[in-house]
């Protein structure tokens, strides 16, 4: 990582242009690029910025068609998010794709796979947990309705330039076994992501997370059709999702390729994108 995150992103954006469209009242800011018979739809995690996928796109676009989007701000529930994503896929002529999701993006990918099996060719899950009754119950014990209301109140009332600093410190605490070079890269990544981040964006992604805890949970039978087409990559140092939640995810995904014990913690997908992109490519070449 000789270049900073910002330098790498600027070079990427000089070669790629975001598109904007509006579909049934949902507005999208997205990238659709690459070529190949297999398409990938990328669901970003809790920061909600699709630019975080750019290292993956660089590694994979020569062989795969790739769709990466910011979630439409008009979507009030996660059900509306995945419906809107399906509309965007249709708009771009993508009838079905391999879904790739990280963190809360992994939840959304699982939800999409359950609701739209005809649009789902495979499922790749990074740094996430099962969209299951037991995991939802465990998360609800920590992320209570009272905590949700308090978080929303804080986002609405605290000057956001101060809250950004708190958010960044919280994310830095999740880093595990990180090299000095990786630390510098990640600090620059967070600085760049939060540069134009707003309280409204933070509130939107906070609501996406809490809404997931109220959705109808999935079961193993919902993913039986994807046997042999699922990759799960997890860090056992993840402080966001417990080992029990990770095991629940593994148990719920039939015939999945499992890669765990990854160094880095919850943000390893952003910290070590080259390694993750290589693992994704290896899986795609094997499964498709």
What tags apply to this protein structure?
288 residues; alpha/beta; Rossmann fold; eight-stranded mixed sheet; 12 helices; 48% helix; 15% strand; globular
Put the structure in a nutshell.
The protein has helices at 5-13, 54-60, 78-91, 104-115, 133-142, 145-157, 160-172, 180-195, 199-212, 243-252, 268-271, 273-287, and strands at residues 19-23, 26-34, 39-43, 65-69, 97-102, 120-126, 230-233, 257-259. By secondary structure, it is α/β, with parallel strands linked by helices.
* Largest sheet properties: 8 strands, mixed
Q: What is the CATH topology classification name?
A: Rossmann fold
Overall geometry comes to globular
Low-confidence stretches: none
Q: How many domains would you count in the coordinates? A: 1
What does this structure look like?
This protein is α/β, with parallel strands linked by helices. It is built from twelve helices and eight strands. It has an eight-stranded mixed beta sheet with strand order 1-2-4-3-5-6-7-8, with helices on both faces. Helix 2 (54-60) packs across helix 12 and helix 3 packs across helix 4. The radius of gyration is 18 Å and the shape is globular. The model has no long low-confidence stretch (mean pLDDT 96).
């Amino acid at each position: 990582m000789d270049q900073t995150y910002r330098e790498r992103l600027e070079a990427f954006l000089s070669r790629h242009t975001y598109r904007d469209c509006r579909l049934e009242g949902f507005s999208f800011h997205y990238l659709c690029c690459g070529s190949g018979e297999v398409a990938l739809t990328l669901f970003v995690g809790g920061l909600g910025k699709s630019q975080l996928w750019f290292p993956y796109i660089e590694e994979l676009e020569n062989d795969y068609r790739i769709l990466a989007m910011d979630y439409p701000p008009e979507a009030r529930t996660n059900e509306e998010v995945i419906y809107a994503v399906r509309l965007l896929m249709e708009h771009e002529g993508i009838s079905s794709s391999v879904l790739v999701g990280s963190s809360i993006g992994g939840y959304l990918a699982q939800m999409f796979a359950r609701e739209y099996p005809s649009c789902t060719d495979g499922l790749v899950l990074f740094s996430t947990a099962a969209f299951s009754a037991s995991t939802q119950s465990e998360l609800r014990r920590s992320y209570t309705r009272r905590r949700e209301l308090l978080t929303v109140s804080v986002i609405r009332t605290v000057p956001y330039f101060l809250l950004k600093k708190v958010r960044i410190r919280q994310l830095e605490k999740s880093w595990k076994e990180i090299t000095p070079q990786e630390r510098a890269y990640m600090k620059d990544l967070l600085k760049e992501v939060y540069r134009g981040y707003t309280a409204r964006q933070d509130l939107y992604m906070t609501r996406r997370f809490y809404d997931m805890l109220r959705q109808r949970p999935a079961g193993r039978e919902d993913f039986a059709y994807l046997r042999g087409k699922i990759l799960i990559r997890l860090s056992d140092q993840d402080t966001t999702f417990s080992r029990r939640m990770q095991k629940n995810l593994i148990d719920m995904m039939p015939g999945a390729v499992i890669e765990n014990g990854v160094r880095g913690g919850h943000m390893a997908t952003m910290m070590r994108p080259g390694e993750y992109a290589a693992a994704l490519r290896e899986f795609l070449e094997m499964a498709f």
